[in-house]
Design goal:
Helices cover about 30% and strands about 25% of the residues. By secondary structure, it is of the alpha/beta class.
Length: about 140
Amino acid sequence: MLLQRLALRAAVACALLLVSADARAWEGRVSWYGSEHGQAKNAVACSRRTVGHLAGRFNPAGMTAAHWTLPCGTRVRVTDLATGRSVEVTVTDRGPHPRLHRTLDLARGAAAHLGILNRGVIRARLTIVAAPGAGRLRLAALR
């Protein structure tokens, strides 16, 4: 079971590297979450076994985010479609659940930087900036 999960995550990371820049961007609903979730939730979502040590820990005041399927450690640029402001965040957590019809949850610090604390849910363009392990793959290709 663990090997299947690791293989699936490796396949997703490789697929992210091979697709064009246009395919790495999409639009969706983005919200934010704060310190009420605490550190314990992230300990399960992005543990050391799932490259959480590369992604960092959830920090309510930091530039982190939660996504349901992107690998932990993925860097994503979030651009507010209404204002044009953008911020780069790192996926360090899992959520929001797909039934909530939201694409990404920003930590409070990233939401404040983007200026959406009072608005709650926004329409945003999400662009993958870097996938975890991309640097290691490039180094291996050069050898």
